[in-house]
Amino acid sequence: MIDETVVTLSRLQFALTALYHFLFVPLTLGLSWMLAIMEAVYVMTGREVWKRMTQFWGVLFGINFAMGVATGVTMEFQFGTNWAYYSHYVGDIFGTPLAIEGLMAFFLEATFIGLFFFGWDRLSRVKHLVVTFLLALGTNLSALWILIANAWMQNPVGSRFNLDTMRMEVTDFGAVVFNPVAQSKFVHTVSAGYVLGAMFVLSISAWYLLKGRNVDFAKRSMTVAASFGLASALSVVVLGDESGYTVTEHQKMKLAAIEAMWETEPAPAAFTAFGLPDVAERTTHYAIHIPWLMGIIGTRSLDRVLPGIGELVGDAEQRIAGGMKAYAAMQRLRVDRNDAAARAEFEAHERDLGYALLLKRSLADPATASPDDIRAAAASTIPNVPVLFWAFRIMVGCGLWFIALFAYSFWLSARRELDRRRRYLKAALWSLPLPWLAIELGWIVAEYGRQPWAIEGVLPTALGVSSVSVAQVATSLAGFVLFYSALAVVDAVLMLKYARKGPDGLGMWPPAKPEPVPDHSVVAARP
What we know:
With 527 residues, the protein is mainly α. The protein is built from 19 helices and 6 strands. Helix 4 (84-118) packs antiparallel against helix 5 (125-154), helix 9 packs across helix 15 (385-414) and helix 11 packs antiparallel against helix 12 (340-349).
């Protein structure tokens, strides 16, 4: 029997470390390209002001990069410590993109970050600009390969279960790399990172203007942030639509849970803008619907039907029944590899094997499952509807606010009025946490919405854990919480310290010249 406490603690540990690590990744993505833009202006114009801007924001980028590395390395060890069977079952596939990320992207990123900081007086302007662009490219390549690995968990293409090794193996690496879920997740994720980078620069610059410090520096930085942020915020919406379409194609239960669509609706389905999902009653109270919108977003048509949760649970019951046949045939083949009838039976129902494994959460042998066991296992395929429903809507609300804020910033920048609207500056400052909130909620939607699967339709999460005790997982969880909390304090202190010092405090910006004091004695001496 599976120890549910071990599963819960293992999931909690990985979720906390992943969410904490992703506080740094998107900011690295966004700031890297903003550094490249600022330095490109410096190279084209030769004005030292743009070089100093690049250097100052580069300091904050470096602090964030170091924290991202420190928190990211520890995550991979958890696959061996807490998720040993997961690593055994799918390691040949999942590990390959991670290995390529380390060899191709992380080494590139780590190498050029050193040249970025120490090459200002050793490289020409153009060569240093190339370094900065390669640094930005490395950060994005890191995200690409990690998201390819993650997308395979959402849509396991290019692979097949091997009866001889009892593991999942690659059959088409090209399909893994060009997984449509990977493509949509990559562009959506990096665009969100660009929004965060732009908001980071915009908010800190707004603080300088509110304090009357570094006015020229802040206005230039806000101009870049407004342009880059507006383009990025708009792209998040467009690319988010593509991401929603791929969810419809490959993770129908996740989409139904996000929408709290309990029953199948006639096409085109409406979008629920507001409501209170009730899991017990399987209804949404006080729902406010926008006609047709969900059908258009989810299917890009007016006639395709989006299945509701009830229908999908019924489909899961049928797939569990088929998976039980595959599981029984697999057990016969383990006894006799030459059993042709068993092999044919397994191949006929192979795609449903993962659904039979859902039964192992409560049964040692899925072949002994009763109809009630099958119904309970099918019902477990419903993720936490209220969490997904509200996480998605808060994320979307933040995205609409970003578009409005960046558009207004762009308008003020064009009118050269960035420093004249204090309410706007305060709004920009207090909006700093919102991109992090939206990004973390996005990952909750993506990962929590996949439950109960570690690999969609292939491996239930509960089966992927290591054979460890509750005490062992609890101890490692406590250690991670303490370690990551210490890193959080260090990061906050360093970021606040250097942001408050500003470019003038770090010697990167000339101090403001004091206003000349009029000599009243000369006036008084006049007859």
